[in-house]
């Protein structure tokens, strides 16, 4: 007997034992249970942590099994993404959601659009996670509702084979609820503040939290200038805070992504507290730019002196009070950051890079893996990169090194549309297409994400509609440019009433009121025009 029928049978006994429940249909109640399989969002966090750990183990065994996500700034966007994934690929395995701090700042703050500098209300991060999962749960209810209606039609037609087929689909239904990698920025304060916010994110459903090693009150977007990192002890305290939050809430296998901004960060706000030569703090301080002090006359009022690497140095201090790192230390700092994070509770690494270059990422990961062989990355396929220009320049450089004639190309002007149909452009597009698989295979990238793609797609699609609708096309811009494409592509939102839950509500009304239910989906509902 199928699981669906077993559950109806079990609930039939419960309902039958209560004489006043004579209007309750056990099958309807089972359907409602199946449409709400996650009773709390903490259940979601626990469920997805297990999935993510399984995916990480699968990648360790076979690096072609990398995972992917797109950043979503609204629950509806996340929902439509997962519906499309199921439609096009049949399963959600290895497909996550990313919650971008950049998009929260730019799109969800009550202050209005903000730069990615942790100025937005920190509670909106948890709010968006909760919203995303609310919409993903509704996608489950929506898809199952269509299966239940199809089952009722098959019953009415007396088609037993069809009934068996549909019940099989119900028994094997795959949820739209997938892991979210949630950006907690630099923790929004001290370790206690980080712990409190991490709890909110986990209670909202997050199984994976990403945290970066910047100073919380100086935080900058990873692709902006002026980034300031913290000593390792400060960052370890925040890693511990996130782990304690997971353990307190019973998500024992919660995942922490430790991000280092050290490749692009040349500043630190404080000098690390070292107690003995060669300790972690001493290694951090050894990267500081400064002059060796051999005579007290070299020391001016207000100067700070540090003993590191067996030398007494006067670190370069800026007028802002920040200290400067030596410019040639960034990669060494990245490696130390990553090794230290993995040895202090982090599960995955994030290295923010200036360009998407597999060889460059591999160079750093190879050095990390010399000390931590299982190291693997979450990598930001950022819209801040000019992907077309980057890969055209990479191909140009590779061809030049191979001795191929590149005299027909201007390296500095490769974004020019005149090159779009060139051999170099075609090769660059191929490199772009293969970037994720190659980075997973050669550079230890377990998860590829695009932080804010749906910010750009919303702007692009709106621009296209506006140009036509307010121009000569008028209503044709919508009819042909939007609705007709929805119909041809089989996008469910063409029946927007159904997508918003109208049919689910009608069926519930029938459960509750029987034939007396006043339903919205009758013959006069214009949604019927779409078949």
UniProtKB/TrEMBL annotation:
Membrane found in the keyword field: no
Cofactor note text: Can also use Mn(2+) ion.
Cofactor: Mg(2+)
Keywords per UniProt: Lyase, Magnesium, Metal-binding
Catalytic reaction list: D-threo-isocitrate = glyoxylate + succinate
Keyword Magnesium belongs to the record: yes
GO terms for MF: isocitrate lyase activity; metal ion binding
Residues at the catalytic site: 221
Pfam families reported in the protein's UniProt record: ICL
Domain of life: Bacteria
Residues the entry annotates as binding Mg(2+): 183
Entry's Gene Ontology BP terms: carboxylic acid metabolic process
Protein name, UniProt field: Isocitrate lyase
Species the sequence originates in: Alloalcanivorax marinus
């Amino acid at each position: 007997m199928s699981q669906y029928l077993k559950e109806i049978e079990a609930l039939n006994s419960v309902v039958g034992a209560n004489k006043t429940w004579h209007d309750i249909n056990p099958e309807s109640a089972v359907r409602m249970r199946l449409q709400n399989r996650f009773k709390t969002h903490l259940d979601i966090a626990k469920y997805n942590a297990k999935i993510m750990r399984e995916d990480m183990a699968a990648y360790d065994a076979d690096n072609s099994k990398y995972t992917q996500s797109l950043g979503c700034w609204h629950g509806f966007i996340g929902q439509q993404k997962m519906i499309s994934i199921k439609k096009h690929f049949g399963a959600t395995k290895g497909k996550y959601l990313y919650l971008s701090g950049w998009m929260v700042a730019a799109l969800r703050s009550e202050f209005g659009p903000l730069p990615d500098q942790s100025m937005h209300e920190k509670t909106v991060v948890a709010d968006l996670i909760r919203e995303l999962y609310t919409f993903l749960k509704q996608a489950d209810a929506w898809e199952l509702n269509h299966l239940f209606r199809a089952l009722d039609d098959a019953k009415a037609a007396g088609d037993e084979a069809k009934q068996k087929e549909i019940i099989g689909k119900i028994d094997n239904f795959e949820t739209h609820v997938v892991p979210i990698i949630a950006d907690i920025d630099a923790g929004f304060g001290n370790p206690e503040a980080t712990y409190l916010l991490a709890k909110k994110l986990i209670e909202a459903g997050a199984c994976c939290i990403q945290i970066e090693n910047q100073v919380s009150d100086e935080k900058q977007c990873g692709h902006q200038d002026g980034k300031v990192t913290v000593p390792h002890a400060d960052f370890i305290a925040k890693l511990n805070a996130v782990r304690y939050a997971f353990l307190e809430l019973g998500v024992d296998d919660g995942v922490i992504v430790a991000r280092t901004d050290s490749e692009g960060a040349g500043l630190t706000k404080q000098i690390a507290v070292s107690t003995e030569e060669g300790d972690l703090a001493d290694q951090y301080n050894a990267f500081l730019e400064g002059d060796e002090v051999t005579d007290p006359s070299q020391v001016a009022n207000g100067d700070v002196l540090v003993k590191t690497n067996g030398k007494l140095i006067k670190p370069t201090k800026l007028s802002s009070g920040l200290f400067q790192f030596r410019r040639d230390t960034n990669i060494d700092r990245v490696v130390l950051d990553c090794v230290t994070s993995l040895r202090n509770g982090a599960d995955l690494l994030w290295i923010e890079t200036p360009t998407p270059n597999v060889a460059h990422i591999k160079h750093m990961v190879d050095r990390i893996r010399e000390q931590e062989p299982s190291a693997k990355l979450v990598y930001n396929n950022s819209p801040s990169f000019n992907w077309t220009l980057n890969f055209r320049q990479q191909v140009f450089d590779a061809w030049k090194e191979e001795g191929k004639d590149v005299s027909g190309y201007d390296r500095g002007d490769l974004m020019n549309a005149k090159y779009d149909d060139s051999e170099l452009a075609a090769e660059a597009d191929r490199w772009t297409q293969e970037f994720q698989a190659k980075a997973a295979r050669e550079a230890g990238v377990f998860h590829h994400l695009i932080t804010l793609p749906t910010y750009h797609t919303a702007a692009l699609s709106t621009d296209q509609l506006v140009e036509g609708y307010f121009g000569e096309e008028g209503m044709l811009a919508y009819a042909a440019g939007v609705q007709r494409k929805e119909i041809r592509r089989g996008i469910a939102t063409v029946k927007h009433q159904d997508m918003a839950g109208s049919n689910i509500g009608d069926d519930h009304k029938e459960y509750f009121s029987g034939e007396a239910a006043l339903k919205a989906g009758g013959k006069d509902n214009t949604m019927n025009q779409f078949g």
